[in-house]
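Renewal narrative, Specific Aim 1. Our central claim is that a sequence can be written position by position from structural information alone. The example that follows is taken directly from our test logs and has not been curated for this report. It begins with the structure tokens describing the chain, in the order in which they were read.
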């Protein structure tokens, strides 16, 4: 009988999980640790930080804390659901290339990840009920993009487009959720698109070689390591230049005493990343590069909003 490689790999993976269940009984602390790791705590924390900044800016100067908490909690639940279902969808590939992850390690069983991820979506819906319907619509669009990424687009060049489309939805959601939609929101769409591509490439760089070995065609794999680093830095610079031009021309009026320092820090950050990170640097430095890119994107977009709204 002919053997089917995909089926055999899946069977070996299932046998691996079953053997771990038989030979090792999980402790309560291991289960808690597994769920914590399953939620991708550091990337999700960055998203929560971003939505918190945008929500506070959208609420300025009248803070209704009950609404603010709902807005942040609903988005956090959605991000956690995307993270958990990402590991569920990637469990077979992770068993080969990332055995340290909670599902391959046996800390969390696949059906537990699936159920918990779906539960977080249900929690998101409950938290969104008291908020404006537009916030729900935007959240559903973000959720659809996130799950489409998990279900297959992650392995294609469209992964970058998914990120680029999703990023502008975070400030749009925050402002819609508090019922305040100023004109600058429209300009956040092209800015978010550029920064979304940046974040996608920076997020993909640490695993680029593994993704390529598995036959994935992510945007970072297509571009390669060197060009992915270059595009990351260029898109941040283009976005910063756009903000500067909009401020100087008065198309989007803003306080220059806020915008100028934000742009200076952004350009210094890019210069530092060009000097300390790149294709020729150790691979382990790419994760730090992703965190710095994320902080730079939050500084640039959040600083711009502060300069416009305050």
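The sequence written for that structure reads:
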């Amino acid at each position: 009988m002919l053997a089917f490689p995909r089926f055999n790999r899946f069977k070996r993976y299932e046998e691996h999980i079953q053997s771990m269940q038989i030979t090792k009984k999980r402790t309560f602390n291991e289960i808690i640790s597994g769920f914590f790791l399953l939620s991708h705590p550091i990337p999700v924390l960055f998203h929560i930080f971003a939505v918190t900044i945008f929500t506070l800016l959208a609420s300025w100067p009248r803070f209704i804390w009950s609404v603010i908490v709902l807005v942040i909690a609903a988005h956090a639940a959605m991000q956690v659901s995307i993270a958990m279902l990402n590991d569920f969808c990637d469990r077979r590939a992770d068993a080969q290339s990332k055995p340290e992850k909670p599902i391959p390690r046996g800390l969390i069983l696949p059906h537990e990840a699936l159920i918990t991820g779906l539960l977080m979506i249900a929690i998101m819906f409950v938290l969104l009920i008291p908020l404006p319907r537009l916030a729900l619509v935007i959240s559903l669009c973000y959720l659809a993009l996130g799950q489409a990424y998990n279900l297959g687009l992650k392995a294609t060049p469209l992964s970058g487009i998914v990120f680029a489309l999703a990023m502008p939805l975070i400030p749009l959601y925050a402002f819609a959720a508090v019922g305040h939609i100023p004109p600058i929101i429209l300009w956040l769409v092209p800015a978010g698109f550029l920064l979304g591509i940046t974040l996608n490439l920076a997020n993909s760089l640490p695993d680029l070689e593994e993704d390529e070995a598995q036959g994935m065609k992510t945007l970072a794999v297509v571009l390669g390591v060197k060009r992915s680093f270059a595009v990351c830095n260029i898109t941040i610079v283009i976005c910063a230049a756009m903000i500067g031009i909009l401020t100087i021309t008065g198309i989007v009026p803003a306080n220059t005493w806020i915008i100028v320092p934000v742009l200076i820090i952004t350009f210094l950050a890019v210069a530092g990343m060009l000097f300390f990170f790149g294709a020729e640097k150790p691979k382990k430095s790419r994760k730090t590069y992703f965190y710095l890119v994320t902080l730079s994107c939050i500084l640039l977009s959040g600083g711009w909003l502060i300069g416009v709204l305050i």
